[in-house]
Amino acid sequence: MSIEICGVGKRFGNFVALDNINLSIPTGELVALLGPSGCGKTTLLRIIAGMETPDGGHVKFAGEEATHLHARERNVGFVFQHYALFRHMSVFENVAFGLRVKPRGERPAENEIRRRVIDLLKLVQLDWLADRYPSQLSGGQRQRIALARALAVEPKVLLLDEPFGALDTKVRKELRRWLRRLHDEVHISSVFVTHDQEEALEVADRVVVMNHGRIEQIGTPDEVYSNPASPFVYQFLGNVNVFHSRVHGQWADVGGGENEEKASDTPDATPSGQAEKKGEALAFVRPHDIDIERSPVAGSIEATVQDVHAIGPIVRVELAHASELIEVEITRERAAGLNLVRGLAVWLKPRQVKVFNVAASQLEEGGSGI
Amino acid sequence: MSGQTTRLATAEPRWLRAVLMVVGLGFLFFFLALPLVAVFVEAFQGGMSAYVEALRHPETLSAIGLTVFIAVFVLPFNIAVGVAAAWAIAKFDFRGKSLLITLIDLPFAVSPVVVGLVFLLIFGAQGLFGPWLAAHDVKIVFALPGMIIVTLFITFPFVARELIPLMQAQGKDEEEAAISLGASAWQMFFRVTLPNIKWGLLYGVILANARAMGEFGAVSVVSGHIRGETNTLPLHVEILYNEYNAVGAFASASVLALLALVTLVAKTVVEWQMRRETVMLDTPLAPENVGQPSGTQP
Q1: Where do the domains of chain A lie, and which CATH numbers do they carry?
Q2: CB distance A97–B282 less than 8 Å?
Q3: CA A230 – CA A367 distance, rounded (Å)
Q4: Residues of B in contact with A75 (CB under 8 A)
């Protein structure tokens, strides 16, 4: 079932949680609402579920008006961050709940309920836990039971609020791949909220990046990562964004004269020389988009090696240019070839730069989000 | 030198521990155990038959009956209003919430005698609604309704006070989950909320019951002490005692003391149940295994 959100807004007192949100989610897609905490993503999810009422705007399910439909009539499955399993019921009864509370006419017979619950528990691979209580399960197991419980009522939409937020890293990674497989198997429209960009990029068909109650960008994981629409998206989706907001102020500064070509790499960029003079534009480069050279090349700037960290497959190099710190990630092989040592003078050349106009960029908002 | 340091680090000096223990236990003995024993000793002073005789006196029986009746009448109201108030406070945000919390505590803060007087002022013959009530031949003060009203007032906080922190701690996720799964409001309450708060609720009810049966001051003011009619057990004890009927007074008092003991036992059992449930909820964690084939697990 498709979901349509038109002009939805929500305030809590003076705080604007959502500001004129327009979003359409096609049938069968797995969509991630990504953003820092307080950006309104959970509020949006709860409005879709009917647990909050928007101040204005419309929510439509499959083209039909659902804005004022009660949560229990929306037929959505909701998975809570902290699972919200019924603590006094066994796993089996938790999953059966949605079937047992159906009106007498629609309620399946006891053996039918049993069959469906066991099927669902098999789907989440936890049928051997049917008689346990939620407290006897690990976090990952609880979350999968919560998912089975939500699926029991055969929802048309599945909504997940930070589904892996309370789990440790290893389990989180396994579980999100598992969720992706499950989604492909069950194939219902799903929306999940996350603040973890890696999670969103890995699992979702489409990513909706949100900040301060507004949608910054909607796109496939590849689009939002390689072609960010705003400085905020750029910073939020990179690993070392904070660095780069500073660093790229620096790039824009040094860009004058010798770096004409750099700015022209990016189609929507303000010409860098001009920008530099006015101090109005900022350039963004990801740490892995910078080459380190031992000798000057066209469009490069000089920097001094401050520190070299080998982190797994990559080597992270911290360099100083004037008073700015620049972070660069290169492969182990490249690092070995360069023979970098502290204090060495090298030349940096960016492969890919994105320049944003300062006025439009709201850099501080982006920076504070990290 | 080193010996001194060790002692400072581990515990108070032995003499201090001894003093504290004697003070604590002595207090318990003189103020709790001794009076309890005294009640039963006095009650049985005339022997078993005198004790039974005193309890079987029609006025005593009527006092016991009235006490039980008031408690049975008051508790359902207490449960309903207490749950409703706790629900509102724990699960919703609204203006005046802190005022409501303060008001719930009010009966604890006000002297019961004042409570009785307040209701006299409202419903008494010279009171606010007095003329209207007299005109319609409704008796509240110096009658059962007045006693029930003041008991309601006095016992109101117990259930709500017990439930508010419990419900706040539990949050409203489970209720929201129930609704999103299609449960109606009643189904949500009886299948999800009530099972989660049942021990806290029972605890509050036990305390409210003890207070309802034992309340003296407020009930005394509005009862009018009509023997065999508006005399509850605590009032009856006072009347008998003032008439120098020691055996009768202490026999009735022993019933109240028994009630206290039963309350203590029930309270302990409920506490033990609550603890057992939380322990059960917290202990055995199954190992984390995502995506492993089923059947390999115990």
Answers
A1: 3-235 (3.40.50.300), 239-369 (2.40.50.100)
A2: no
A3: 12
A4: 182
Taking only the tens place, the pLDDT of each residue in B133-173 is: 888 888 888 888 889 999 999 998 999 999 999 998 888 89
**Chain A residue numbers touching B289 (CB-CB < 8 A):** 140
Question: In terms of residue numbers, what domain contains B222?
Answer: 48-279
Q: CATH no. for residue B145?
A: 1.10.3720.10
CB contact under 8 A, A72 and B182: yes
- Low-confidence residues of chain A: pLDDT under 50: 240-279, 360-370
A-B CB pairs within 8 A amount to 108
Does the distance separating the beta carbons of A82 and B180 come in below 8 Å? Answer: no
Strand order in the sheet with A301-311: A290-293, A345-350, A301-311, A314-321, A324-331
Tokens of B209: 């019951």
What ipTM was predicted for this assembly? 0.76
A221 CB-near residues (< 8 Å, 6+ apart): A200, A201, A202, A204, A206, A207
Query: Is 90 exceeded by the pLDDT of residue B100?
Result: no
My answer on whether B198 and B123 are in the same domain is: yes
**Residue A144 · residue A177 · CB < 8 Å:** no
Number of domains in chain B: 2
A-contacting residues of B 170-189, CB under 8 Å?
A: 173-174, 176-184, 187
Cα B51 from Cα B48, distance rounded (Å): 5
The chain B residue lying nearest A178, using CA atoms, is B291
CA A17 to chain centre: 18
pLDDT digits (tens, 9 = 90+) for A355-370: 676 554 444 433 332 2
- Reference A8, options A213, A202, A183; nearest CA is A213
Beta bridge partners of A282: A356
Position B272: which residue type? W
HSE value, Cβ hemisphere, 13 Å, CA-based, for B29: 6
